[in-house]
Design goal:
It is built from 9 helices and 4 strands. It is rod-shaped. A 4-stranded mixed β-sheet has the order 2-1-4-3. It is mainly α. Bound molecules: zinc ion (ZN).
Length: 288
C-alpha cells in the first residue's frame, strides 16, 4: 500500500479503483466507529458514578454538620438544666428564711417555673437525640452505598482504561490506514465522502447493494441501475439517501490480494491427509 500511495499522486485512478478505495475507507471508518461506541458509554457511566458519589459525600458531610449542631444544642439545654437546678436550690434555701407566706408562695412559683423549664429542656434533648439517631442511620446507609459506588467506580474506571489502552493501538493503526486511503483520493471525492458520512445517521457514506436494495436506506434499486453500479464506470449515489453505492463484489477483486486471506487456505492444506490432491492446491495458489 505504501508504494501505491506514491503512485497515486501522479497516476489517475480508475473509477473502479476509486470505488474500491472509498469502500475500504468506509470499512476502516466503521471499525473506528465501533471502537468509539464501545468506549463511548463507559465515560458516561464513570461520570454518573462520580456524580452519585459526590452527592452521597455531600449528604454525609451535611448530616455530620447537622449532628454537630444538634449536639451543641443538647449541651446548651443541659447547661440550662444545670442553671435551673441551681436556681431551684437557691429558692429552696431562700424559702427557709422567708418573712411571710406571700414571699414563700412567690418562691414556690419560681421553683415550679424552673421545674417546668427543666422538663421542657429534657423534652427538647429527647427530640434532638431522636434526630441524631435518624441522621446517624442515614449516614450509615449512605456510607455503605458510598463504599459500594466507590468500588463500582474503580471497576468502571479500570474497564475504561483497559479498553482505551487495548484499542488505542488498533485505533491508531486504523487512523493511519484511513489517512493513507484518503491521500489516494482527490480532494473533491474526499469532501463528498466526508459530507455524506456526516449527514448519515449511521456513519455510512459508502454502502454495497444488498438483496437488490441500498445497503444504507434499504430502498430498492432497479436492475439497470444495479448493472451500472456493477460496471464501476462512474460513481453512482443512492437516489433516496445520497450514499455512494458499490456492488457487493467490490472488495473481492483487488481487496482479496491485500487481505491476509492466506490462512484458511493453508489450514485447509494442513488438514488434508490424503497425499497429493492437485486440485485444491491449485485453487489455493490461484486465490493467493
Ligand atoms: Zn440509499
Amino acid at each position: 500500500m505504501a508504494n501505491k500511495k506514491s503512485d497515486a499522486g501522479t497516476k489517475e485512478m480508475t473509477v473502479a479503483e476509486k470505488l474500491h478505495a472509498l469502500y475500504e475507507l468506509q470499512q476502516v471508518a466503521t471499525s473506528i466507529d465501533k471502537i468509539r461506541i464501545l468506549r463511548g458509554e463507559l465515560p458516561l457511566e464513570v461520570q454518573d458514578l462520580e456524580d452519585e458519589i459526590e452527592g452521597l459525600q455531600t449528604r454525609v458531610s451535611k448530616y455530620k454538620e447537622d449532628i454537630a449542631t444538634l449536639e451543641k444544642s443538647i449541651s446548651g439545654k443541659k447547661q440550662e438544666i444545670e442553671n435551673a437546678q441551681g436556681l431551684i436550690k437557691k429558692y429552696e434555701e431562700q424559702q427557709n428564711n422567708v418573712r411571710n407566706n406571700r414571699e414563700y408562695d412567690s418562691l414556690s412559683k419560681e421553683i415550679e417555673f424552673q421545674t417546668l423549664e427543666i422538663e421542657l429542656c429534657e423534652k427538647r434533648i429527647n427530640e434532638f437525640d431522636a434526630q441524631i439517631k435518624e441522621k446517624t442511620e442515614v449516614i450509615e446507609e449512605s456510607t455503605t452505598l458510598l463504599n459500594e459506588r466507590t468500588g463500582d467506580l474503580d471497576t468502571k474506571k479500570k474497564e475504561l482504561d483497559d479498553i482505551v489502552s487495548e484499542t488505542k493501538k488498533e485505533e491508531d493503526q486504523l487512523e493511519a490506514k484511513s489517512d493513507n486511503i484518503k491521500s489516494m483520493l482527490d480532494e473533491r471525492l474526499q469532501a463528498a465522502y466526508n459530507r455524506i458520512r456526516s449527514n448519515a445517521r449511521n456513519g455510512l457514506a459508502v454502502v454495497p447493494v444488498e438483496r437488490d436494495a441500498c445497503g444504507g436506506c434499504y430502498n430498492k434499486i432497479p436492475p439497470q441501475r444495479q448493472l451500472d453500479i456493477a460496471s464501476r464506470k462512474k460513481i453512482i449515489v443512492c437516489e433516496y439517501c445520497g450514499r455512494i453505492l458499490v456492488d457487493d463484489q467490490i472488495m473481492e477483486v483487488e481487496g482479496e490480494k491485500e487481505k491476509p486471506k492466506a490462512k484458511p487456505a493453508e489450514k485447509a492444506k494442513a488438514t488434508e491427509k490424503p497425499k497429493a490432491k492437485p486440485k485444491p492446491k491449485a485453487k489455493a495458489k490461484a486465490k493467493k
